[in-house]
Design goal:
mainly alpha, single chain, about 240 residues
Length: about 240
């Protein structure tokens, strides 16, 4: 049972990491440039925009930081209370973030061309996506799947390098399985960004459509989690 639970959670994290890459493609190419999951990038872009770097804007960065803060705060409070009550907080968090992404998709539906002038629609969509990513960051952190941070590829890449024969960091969990998870996490983020950028830039798919796809995939993961027997998912409380 424990092995099957671990396998499900690992693939859930792969799917979420993939959609994180897609979300960031939309955020950077169509809503900003701004990041909504990787807040390190947002902070840097904000600092660059404040000194007047061409092509960057302060407002979408502020919308992203604000949305992420609200999402993370609400998620932490909700999931802590749900866990105490023995409810399936991970599933509920996935549903919540997917619904927020669906609303963001509706707001962004008229944004069809990367690089078009920013409007209130761009800022609102960026804030909503960041809110969803704030929820995701808390819930995936609580799930605690080693080697798959979902929204912070730097950690997985660092662990992948540190655990390789090039470094052999003894502080990292050893084993081929750990390295595979780290490698898959990095590859999923790259693939998500690549796919999202290809849809936006090459196929001219609207930002709203890409966001809607990520919302549907997130809801599918939540449904799959619902089908896992309760006693096999300690993460659900």
């Amino acid at each position: 049972m424990r092995a099957r639970r671990g396998t499900f959670l690992m693939w859930a994290m792969v799917a979420l990491t993939l959609t994180t890459g897609m979300v960031e493609a939309v955020s950077f190419l169509a809503l900003g440039p701004v990041f909504t999951a990787v807040q390190t990038g947002t902070m840097l872009l904000l600092s660059f925009a404040l000194v007047g770097v061409a092509g960057l804007a302060v407002v979408p960065c502020l919308a992203s930081v604000a949305g992420f803060t609200v999402g993370a705060a609400l998620s932490a409070r909700f999931e802590s209370r749900s866990r105490l009550r023995g409810r399936r907080w991970f599933r509920e968090a996935l549903i919540a973030e997917s619904l927020v992404l669906a609303v963001a998709a509706a707001v962004a539906w008229g944004i069809d061309r990367p690089g078009e002038p920013l409007t209130g629609r761009h800022y609102t969509a960026a804030g909503l996506v960041a809110l969803a990513m704030g929820i995701r960051s808390v819930s995936t952190l609580r799930a605690g799947v080693r080697g798959m941070p979902v929204t912070v590829t730097t950690r997985a890449l660092t662990a992948l390098i540190g655990g390789s024969p090039l470094a052999v960091d003894t502080r990292l969990a050893p084993g081929a399985g750990e390295q595979v998870r780290r490698a898959v996490s990095v590859a999923a983020m790259f693939a998500g960004g690549l796919f999202g950028a290809w849809l936006l830039h090459n196929l001219r798919v609207s930002a709203g459509a890409v966001l809607l796809f990520t919302a549907v995939l997130g809801m599918a993961v939540a449904l799959a989690f619902t089908l896992v027997p309760r006693e096999r998912t300690a993460e659900a409380g």
